[in-house]
Amino acid sequence: MDLLQKTYEAGVVGAGGAGFPTHIKLNANVEYFIINAAECEPLLNTDKYLMSIKAEEMIKGMEHIGELLGAKYLTIAIKQKNSKEISILKETIKKLDSKVELFYLKNFYPAGDEQMTVYEVTGRSIPEAGIPLDVGTVVSNVGTVINVYNAINDKPVTEKYITVVGEVNNPRMLKVPIGISIKECIEAAGGSTLDDYAVIIGGPMMGTIIDDDESSSIYIKKTDGSLIVLPKDHYIVKRKRKPIKTIINETRSACIQCRYCTDLCHRYLLGHKLRPHRVMRNVGMAERDPEIMKESLLCCECGICELYSCPMGLSPRLVNIFVKGELRKQGIRPEKGSLDIESREMIEYRKIPTNRLMSRLDIMKYSDQQIDELKEVKVKKVSIPLSQHIGKPATSIVNIGDKVSRGQLIGKVERNDMGANVHSSIDGKVVDISDKIIIEIEDNEVIL
Ligand code: SF4
Ligand code: SF4
């Protein structure tokens, strides 16, 4: 079996984050293969749910991938507090006589940042602007590995499990076809409890915010895993939406150079030369020091400085995003740092406890919402983006009027392209093709 070919054919990408094409990522030889099962952003439950219902597929997928990578260690990094999932995983490992091991993480943010997870498991810091491969490691998430297992069995990526929580009538786990709208997902969770609301696609720290009126024209992609519905005037929504001009003006007048943003920045603590307080001091100056501004290129946008550290309510994260954009326009990219890097001594004492973070984010009231009930959602129409992840979009290989079936290839990339194939997520007819392929069930067909 050619696992990379099967993964390419099935269109597998990282099921969270930027969605790196998996057939490219797995073309490596490493010591560690790690599943990042930390799910460290508050309120997210999709990975935990998948581990509880698909543990066998995940462990088998890990064994196949581990063999391909020549990995000595196959490790699932999971939070120690997730006792139910840990016991299911232990039983499955025993049943399959697998060499997979569990590594227990404490309950802190950002335990699931790829660089932090690698540090916790291996004790190695990834160099500045580097990737896990630089320290002999490949990291995947739970959904990705299950999708690789499905790919081995010739099942392409056509569906997603989505946590829907916050201001909805029935918080729950949904199983949905890729290309369903965000609004349909919220309706499947009983609709919002509010007339006007905002939706975070992803986690409260790193997710993207949209308004209720945008939710019918934005569609679930391979990289999505959760939706959090919040009031439009919620603390997180207001903080993330502040205009950059206001932020820079506030920074000039209110930054007291306490350096909490730097002292709690996990990338700084991992040993990187990223000191957001220096970027904040510089961004307000008429003449900025280019070497200091370049530090912002190392920011992973985790949001600790913006939503947790700063006592003045400033947003080093948004300033870094702004500065990164300016530097990119000038063709300036981050430079790869030395492999000879050591974490800072205080790293063990500056991890952010998740409960304290939730309290700061004003989301404690959603923390005990139960999402154990699964609802499988069927729709009559899907809009499947040809670009769902980092890299090159797929090219449509169907025409308007074509009948397609679920799992059929409809958008293609070449094997060596930095991209992923796209498949139909329902049986139906192609009714439009642009940057997405719209497929509708015909009137006389029944949704099964
Ligand atoms: S934490 Fe806030 S006030 Fe302190 S240095 Fe950073 S941006 Fe300035
Ligand atoms: S968002 Fe802030 S805390 Fe996170 S990596 Fe960037 S500078 Fe550091």
From TrEMBL:
* Gene3D superfamilies hit by this protein: 3.10.20.600, NADH-ubiquinone oxidoreductase 51kDa subunit (3.40.50.11540)
Q: Does the keyword Kinase apply?
A: no
Pfam families with a match to the protein in the record: Complex1_51K (PF01512), Fer4_17 (PF13534), RnfC_N (PF13375), SLBB (PF10531)
Q: Which residues form the Soluble ligand binding domain?
A: 161-207
Domain NADH-ubiquinone oxidoreductase 51kDa subunit FMN-binding positions: 9-149
Which SUPFAM superfamilies does the UniProt entry name for this protein?
alpha-helical ferredoxin, Nqo1 FMN-binding domain-like, Nqo1 middle domain-like, Single hybrid motif
Q: Does the keyword Protease apply?
A: no
Domain spans labelled RnfC Barrel sandwich hybrid: 379-442
Q: Name one GO molecular function term.
A: metal ion binding
Looking up InterPro entries in the UniProt record yields:
Ion_transpt_RnfC/RsxC (IPR010208), Nuo51_FMN-bd (IPR011538), Nuo51_FMN-bd_sf (IPR037225), PduS (IPR017054), RnfC_N (IPR026902), Single_hybrid_motif (IPR011053), Soluble_ligand-bd (IPR019554)
State a GO cellular component annotated for this protein.
membrane
Keywords on this record?
4Fe-4S, Electron transport, Iron, Iron-sulfur, Metal-binding, Repeat, Transport
- The protein here is known as Proton-conducting membrane transporter
